[in-house]
Automatic annotation (TrEMBL):
Protein name: Undecaprenyl-diphosphatase
GO terms, biological process: cell wall organization; peptidoglycan biosynthetic process; regulation of cell shape; response to antibiotic
Catalytic activity: di-trans,octa-cis-undecaprenyl diphosphate + H2O = di-trans,octa-cis-undecaprenyl phosphate + phosphate + H(+)
UniProt KW keywords: Antibiotic resistance, Cell membrane, Cell shape, Cell wall biogenesis/degradation, Hydrolase, Membrane, Peptidoglycan synthesis, Transmembrane, Transmembrane helix
Enzyme Commission number: 3.6.1.27
Pfam entry (one): BacA
One GO CC term, this protein: plasma membrane
Family to which this protein belongs: Belongs to the UppP family.
Alphabetized GO MF terms: undecaprenyl-diphosphatase activity
Topology versus the membrane: Multi-pass membrane protein
Principal location class: membrane
Biological role stated in the UniProt entry: Catalyzes the dephosphorylation of undecaprenyl diphosphate (UPP). Confers resistance to bacitracin.
Compartments it resides in: Cell membrane
Length: 268
């Protein structure tokens, strides 16, 4: 096993974990990084399985919160409404993702130039939204009504286009619908749980015949790196956006998109 492959697996795992829950598009970063690193995994096993590291990270960080909500379900109407809101928000992406999975994976995910352009456009939009004089009506995710959650779920569907960012679309939609920045980011965490688990299960099922575990060491390295990096991000993001907003992420998106276009022009 080449040292270069190990380094690439480590880098891609860190990229996945660091970008999965912030509005910069982990898909775009992993695809572009893999493209320029020349990293290939038989049956795309690596890209599918390192996502599990990020999933486990958010479940670990939010375990006590999830347990508290689960235990409150029989007696708390508020807890039941919150769970219903998350499931309603998840539904649009579940339907569209399942229906268009083949086109998304075989066409959109194989177009690096499109990914770079969407990164830039999404960065400009996120920057503009972050500077709008919005007056939030909702500051606690537990108070989000199902109707609001459904609208946020429709925005999440924009993330079917690689480079958009699942969390970015969710957060932008939530802000426009009247939430504050902190609760918008936190709701994106909760919505990520069913969405990522569903996407992971669908990817695993669709690729079941092509999956190869020949590079288990590389997969393990990427998985652990994604897990550790995602734990760090989930634990620090809410405080960060409370003080800094989303402008740093918007600028980062634009810079990466421009750098990607330059790299594609120079290197192909």
């Amino acid at each position: 096993m080449a040292d270069q492959s190990i380094i690439s697996a480590l880098v891609l795992g860190l990229v996945e974990g660091l970008t999965e829950f912030i509005p910069v598009s982990s898909t775009a970063h992993v695809l572009l990084a893999g493209h320029f690193l020349g990293f290939r995994s038989p049956g795309n096993t690596f890209a599918v399985l390192i996502q599990l590291g990020a999933i486990l990270a958010i479940l670990l960080v939010y375990f006590q919160r999830l347990l508290k909500i689960a235990l409150a379900l029989p007696s708390s109407a508020l807890a039941r409404r919150f769970v219903l809101s998350v499931l309603i928000a998840f539904l649009p992406a579940a339907v569209i993702g399942a229906a268009a999975h083949g086109f998304i994976k075989s066409v959109l995910f194989e177009t690096p130039m499109l990914i770079c352009i969407v990164l830039i456009v999404g960065g400009v939009i996120l920057y503009a939204i972050d500077h709008l004089p919005l007056k939030p009506r909702y500051t606690d995710v537990m108070d989000y009504p199902p109707s609001l959650a459904f609208k946020i779920g429709l925005f999440q569907c924009l993330a079917m286009i690689p480079g958009t960012s699942r969390s970015g679309a969710t957060i932008a939609g939530a802000l426009l619908m009247g939430t504050d920045k902190r609760s918008a980011a936190e709701f994106s965490f909760f919505l990520a749980m069913p969405t990522m688990v569903g996407a992971f299960a669908l990817d695993l099922y669709k690729n079941r015949d092509a999956l190869s575990f020949d590079d288990m060491t590389l997969i393990a390295i990427g998985f652990i790196a994604a897990f550790v990096a995602a734990v760090f991000v989930v634990r620090s993001l809410l405080d960060f956006v409370s003080y800094r907003g989303f402008t740093p992420f918007a600028i980062w998106r634009i810079l990466i998109g421009v750098a990607g276009l330059i790299g594609l022009w120079l290197l192909g």
